[in-house]
Amino acid sequence: MGAELMYYLPVLGVVGLVVMVAKRIWVSKQDAGDANMQELAGYIAKGASAFLKAEWKVLGVFAAIAAALLAWSGTLVPHSDWVIAVAFLIGAFFSAFAGWIGMNIATKANVRTTQAARTSLAKGLQVSFNGGTVMGLGVSGLAVLGLSSLFIVFHGMYVGGASPNGEEMMKALEVLAGFSLGAESIALFARVGGGIYTKAADVGADLVGKVEAGIPEDDPRNPATVADNVGDNVGDVAGMGADLFGSYVATILSTMVLGREVVSQDSFGGMAPILLPILIAGLGIVFSIIGTFFVRINKDSDSVMAALNRGNIGSIVLTAIASYFVIGWMLPATMTFQRGDVVMEIARMNVFWAIILGLVVGFLMSYITEYYTAMGRKPVMSIVRKSGTGHATNVIGGLAVGMESTFLPILVLAAGIFGAFELAGLYGVAIAAAGMMATTAMQLAIDAFGPISDNAGGIAEMSGLPKEVRERTDILDATGNTTAATGKGFAIASAALTALALFAAYVGLAGITAIDIYKADVLAMLFVGGMIPFLFSSMAISAVGKAAMDMVREVRRQFKEIPGIMEGKAKPEYEKCVAISTQASIREMIMPGALALLSPVIVGFAFGPEALGGLLAGITVSGVLMGIFQNNAGGAWDNAKKSFEKGVEIDGTMYYKHKSDKPSPPHQAAVTGDTVGDPFKDTSGPSMNILIKLTSIVALIIAPHLADKDHHDATPAPALQNMPVGSSNATLPATSAKDHASVTLDLSDRF
Asked: From the centroid of its chain, how far is CA 468?
């Protein structure tokens, strides 16, 4: 097939999109229930569409301004082009479209899942998971199709018959980075805006409805109920879809950029290291489709989580097996990573083992997250027990669980980074991230299943369906709450590996040879970078708090001023609560987005490329820890609350929330903890992985502009000169990565 392989890669994206359409048609044909159920689902769909339209108006203005600036800047340096603005706009559109695909099918699948649950749990799982599969395949299919198609175009424009390791390929990939920047920019605003929307409604509905009025969750008498269900779609579906689309693209792009620095004598014109990550991603779509057939249960007593795990593990194993044969087919026995005078030999099988390592890291991150957030597990039960002594001890317990939950994931990530580098250098770290992201379609299907099930339970409650229907949707919802948390753990892990690969690519494009923390400006920016995730989280959480206060006041007003609302004789003004969340989310998402986009630009041009490297390092380390802490603490708090709703025993006393009862004091404490954790797990926490990648991509875009400026001193600090870890002034012997430890190298060339 030779160098023509790149022309076949878009076909794999098309395969995912074709199956997506088939799944969407199947879901749409399922029974949507009675007129009342369809009316409630209509409110949710209408509210979600209204939010996206309002958000897109703002983002359209942003995209136009950003594209104009990119087009202008692309004409200033030889390694870029004004066409980067076109790539940016396409990436922004694809990211927004990926989110819309997920939101659109979720608002169809929710009511159909409710109706299916009237038959059996197995039927409810089938509908909700197929709805999630539509988003998973839509996101991955669009990413592979868009990235591979644009690469074909830019390869023809800039590279032609030139060497794949030359300046021409660097320019093509720099322009292609605009696609990733567009995707991540929209993802950030979609995730933050959607997160503010959903949590403002959720917190308002819980505090007034459950705690003050003593009515069940999703009770139709609660004016914020519809806004809460809308929020599940715009935050956890549309936001997550755009988020994972950006992650997927950034991971593949960073591996391609580093692949340009790998000299390979292969049958693909030396392009095998560049094309490999796209092919692995495309095959991951195929194996994710196969994995969906493993997600089945036969009766209501079967474990939903076990079924989802079968699908996930099946797709991972198939991808691992296929990677072995693909690498054997594409790569020569040995390749050479070359950056300046630094040369490292990479063995073909080491690339395969790096991919396996990435898959293992992704699985372990998901498993650890499940342990810390699942109902019945020790961490969640510790929060449940602390709820017995009040609100404060519940909050203390949740914070402790979240902090503890950073320990194992960071060790796994550190081992993964170290192992991948020892196997195949920087290219090994990047290809490990690509391996982890290969089954994104399956990961997203499992993730989107959660909010669909949550909506299904809400519709069941608001429609007054029989008790067994709500019990089935609660099983799906509780499982979905855990899968949402594991999806966020997977996303933050991929962000850490991807950010490292993007960081390495940035160092190469910026023309620097060292990131010397002994320099005052670099050390200062390292601290500034560590602070940014905290400031970003503060902005996001404060925005939820402001919007939630408005929501609480509105719900209280309606309870007080609308006669008959509590008796079910009058219909609440749902649209006013929807409007509050919409306006707050659009208004409050601007500042966090500006912080992420502008901080690397300001630091890069004010202090130079080396100081910007310090900023990126600080953001990455701090952001990963903050993301894990907030995601897991919020997920654990949520399932502690759900434990009371299902029924739980504390010190010999059984607590259970009956429909007609006001929550017990321990249950009220659990609701408080959940409201604290809501913005953690659905707003600021999941935004961390976008913050990490977006700042690195912005740095990659401006790197050619910084490379020509004499802001940096390439001479390593004396204290670092004798450290045996990497140097641009030494040449490594043609041996494996493990054998180079005795050579005197500069520390930063590992990055």
From this structure: 34
Q: Is 340 left (phi over 0), alpha (psi -120 to 50) or beta?
A: left
pLDDT higher than 70, residue 166: yes
Residue 652 predicted with pLDDT over 70: no
Lowest mean pLDDT among 101-110, 436-445, 473-482: 473-482
Q: Are 102 and 85 in contact (CB under 8 A)?
A: no
CA 390: distance to chain centroid? 34
The reported pTM is 0.83
Length, in residues, of the chain: 751
Question: Of 682, 620, 609, 628, which is closest to residue 250 (Cα–Cα)?
Answer: 620
pLDDT tens digits along 472-525:
888 888 788 777 777 777 778 878 888 888 888 888 778 787 788 889 999 999
Give yes or no for a contact between 328 and 342, defined as CB atoms under 8 angstroms apart.
no
In 651-684, which residue ranges form alpha helices assigned H by DSSP? Answer: 665-679
Given a contact cutoff of 8 angstroms between Cβ atoms, the answer to whether 186 and 59 are in contact is: yes
Bridge partners for 655 per DSSP: 648
- CA-closest candidate to residue 454, choices 685, 119, 678, 208: 678
| Distance from C-alpha of 66 to C-alpha of 69, rounded to nearest angstrom | 5
pLDDT band for position 167 (cuts 50, 70, 90): confident
Confidence of residue 656 (pLDDT cuts 50, 70, 90): low
Question: Do 289 and 463 form a contact (C-beta atoms < 8 A)?
Answer: no
Cα–Cα nearest to 487, from 135, 65, 5, 723 = 135
Contact 726, 749 (CB under 8 A): yes
Side by side, the strands of the sheet bearing 262-263 are 262-263, 334-339, 342-347
3-state per-residue secondary structure call for 214-245: CCCCCCCCCCCHHHHHHHHHHHHHHHHHHHHH
User: How many CB atoms are closer than 10 A to CB 650?
Assistant: 18
C-alpha to C-alpha distance for 491 and 505, rounded to whole angstroms: 21
Q: Which of 683, 681, 654 is nearest to 384 (CA)?
A: 654
Nearest to 540, CA basis, from 691, 342, 413? 691
Write the DSSP assignment of 722-745 as a string of letters: T-BS--TTS---SS-GGGGGGS-B
CA angle (430, 502, 316) in 5-degree steps = 30
Confidence at residue 111, expressed as pLDDT on a 0 to 100 scale: 92
CA–CA distance, 51 with 437 (Å, rounded to integer): 29
Domain range summary for the chain, segments of one domain joined by + = 2-709, 716-751
Task: Tell me if 685 sits within 8 A of 172, measured CB to CB.
Answer: no
φ, ψ of residue 744 to 5 degrees: the values are -75, 115
Q: Model confidence over 13-68: pLDDT tens digits?
A: 999 999 999 999 999 999 988 888 888 888 888 888 888 888 888 889 989 999 99
What pLDDT, on a 0 to 100 scale, did the predictor assign at position 661?
58
Contacts of 290 (CB under 8 A, 6+ apart): 314, 315, 318
What value does the mean pLDDT take over residues 700-719? 59
Residue 269, by phi and psi: left (phi above 0), alpha (psi -120 to 50) or beta? left
